Predict the 3D structure of the following.
Amino acid sequence: MAATNRDNADDAAAGSDRSPPRPACDAARSGKADTSRITVVLVDDNAMLADAMPYVIRRDPRFEWAGWVSNGASVLDFVRRAAPRIVLMDVDMPEVDTFGLVRQIVACCPESKVVMFSGHLREEYIEAAFDAGACGYLHKDDEFPSLLENLVKIQGGEMIFIPPIERGM
Amino acid sequence: MNEPAPILIVDDQPRNLDAVEAILQSPEFTLVRAQSAEEALLAVLRHDFAAIVLDIRMPGVSGIELADLIKKRKRTQHVPVLFLTAHLMDEHEVLRGYGVGAVDYLTKPINPQILRSKVAVFVDLYRKNRALLDANRALQTEISERLRVQEELRRVNDHLETMVRDRTSDLTVANAALRESEERLRLAIAAAHLLPWEMDLSNERISFAAEAPETFGFAPGSWDGPLEDAARVVHPEDRQAALSAFRGIVNSSESEYAAEFRIVRPQQGVAWVINRGRIIRDAEGRPVRALGVLMDITRRKQFEEELQRHNELLDAAVAQRTRELRESLERLHNSERLATVGTLAAGLGHDMSNLLLPIRARLGSLAELDLPASAADDVASIREAAAYLQRLASGLRLLAADPDRAQEGQSGIDLANWWRDVEGVFRAGLPRGVRLEGRIAPDLPRVSIATSRLTQAVFNLVQNAGEAVTSGHTTTPGVIQVSSSLATEDGRPFVQLMISDNGPGMTPEIAARCFEPYFSTKTRVVSTGMGLPMVRAWVEAAGGRVDLRTAPGSGVTFTLSLRTTGETPAHTPPRARLRAAVSLDDARAEGLVKSMLTARGAGVFNCEEGRVPDAEMWILGGASATPERVIAFLAEHPRRQAIVLESAASAPERPTGSRASPEWPLPEPGLLGGRVQYLGRRPTFTAIRGALLKAVENAESPAGDPASEIDGLQKDQDPGQSTLGPPHPGTIHTVPPERPSPYAATN
């Protein structure tokens, strides 16, 4: 997968910043990490989504944007360096063994909780996510406040996996 | 007259030869002269002599030596030899002459009379011998001829005897075969129910075998008589044809006659017969007699008719199957198209969501800024449009979901919310100019059906309605209404969802058949291919019902009566919530268990260390999970459920499943009605969810009350001791039925 030419993981982690509202890594921007905040890294190949997610995360003071990585190969390295509380991860990225990646993150960064963030509510994905060690499976269609509340709960130790059977699909 | 007998005269002196020759000159004799022994031997080889007159004294080979040689030849040994001597012979010479076989001798000078006499005697002897030989030879010939004839006779006799024997044998076999054949014929006639008849064609009088009329229930002999009379038993419809056919053959040159007709029996109705006959003609070809048999073929006719009926049924079935196959092929084609459309819809919904998320995110940020009023209005409008698009995306996904995999939501559908999601998609799928009106009450109880199925069912009905209202040449704008109402049937509440149109309606015939599989009309094509049968199947599978109200010219209304979950979205009543206690040392499992139970509407709380919780369900693991505590918990109430997880850290690991183990001397699942479930270490998502669903179902089911088992359990429980015997690790342990279980109820 080709990394996008702007705001990719390394740029974000390195603290490159441009004029608002273009998002970047909050910790890098501010120069210090706020340990009381829930730091979030997004793993997704969709650049438009990556552009927009900081708007959502930053609206809630409990959260802190820690950057975006689109390249499956760079994910481990980036997560290890950024040590986010939450890794928000797309399920269906081209040429990426998503659940293998989840296992690797869980093994190397036990402090980071992996949460799947997907447009697909497929039962086999949800099961595979839990079994790989993810702490949640959230839907991209959900309202943002609900998304953020669920992230808070997951950070607090809950598991949020709502399979289709519970959603009535 | 006899032939002259050959006489050999042997003497070395020609005058002696002349003298003897002169003496013996006679037509009775043929004289052969020889002057030496050699000449004599040659003559003997050439002729068969009647006698030899031999001079005894000759130079070289003497007469006696010559006689000896002659006598030694078999052929000449019996030829008499008469020695001639010129002087008196001594005794010795005479004896010698006789010794070699001489018959007589004469002393010279020869007395001609004596010589002639002696020779005549020899000749006579010779002749008699010859005659005897000839007779003997003739006799031998006669004998051998007789023998030959006798042999020939014997041979012919033998042959004759063999032939007679063979013929006799053939005849015996033929006789036996004939008897057997006659017997077989008799049996065959009896078995085939052949009934012979005979007719004198000079007066057309017929006579039947006695059993013929009896077979058909007539008196014996009642058919004998004129043909016209006998034919009265033939069915009136067949009579004339049968008679004409018979007489036609009689008057033609043909000889075989066959016809099938009916006989009207006195009882038992009509019988079918086949009548076969042969016309016998005289030398001029005039018909004289007719012989034939009648055969009852009623059963065969019945079989034929039945076969015919079956054939017709089979043909109809084949035609029907062919039609169904064609229809199902069309449906297959349709459903393939639908699957493609479904994939497209799902992808479209997904992409729309992906695009909408950043838009929603930015709009959310914009809304929080201090914008001028006009700009704020614009942002609000855009947000509304985005929300609509978001619902459209959700609706598309609901439409694309595989209905076969759809599962009913536990919490039910809030129809008002649902309608907001799907309305856009429904409207988008309608022909131009058709109006879709939704009137769904906001405070209806939740309905129990899978969201995707409800969506697809109603979409199907709305699509049908859309086609119906545009099918006729009408100027009235097409309107489709989707409305709701609350109804009660047998004391149970139902939510009714009505889909009505102002189209041309259905005829009673179409209305009666429109729910049949494969039924379709040209005026009301089930364009989605899912069809009304599927709509009905889905609604009925969820415990609901589909009704149709229609009349030509007054549109169609489908009413879906949907089962409710008993909850209204507006004010969820505090119904008896399932309480579940959780004490686990596996944080992930605990998180998932809590999340699932909460999503299902259960009240979830953590159980204090060392306590037995007051709950319907207890999910426990690690140090807190001891057999005593589990049994104490279960004993409290017969419907309580326990799920035991292996501690994330403990060892050794118990095998997953519902069973006891040495560390866990719990009774078999059967004894506790399956109220304990064991999960291993780090259970999978599927295992946890399966155990929870089962436990929830058990806790809520009004099944048999296992209280008696619990009573026994409480009384007999001895927690410190394994009473199940030594189970094998990794195997499922069962309690042998003959061994009294310590958990069995006792008094």
In short: Chain A has one domain: 9-167. Chain A is about 40% helix and 15% strand. The longest strand of chain A covers residues 63-69. The radius of gyration of chain A is 15 Å.
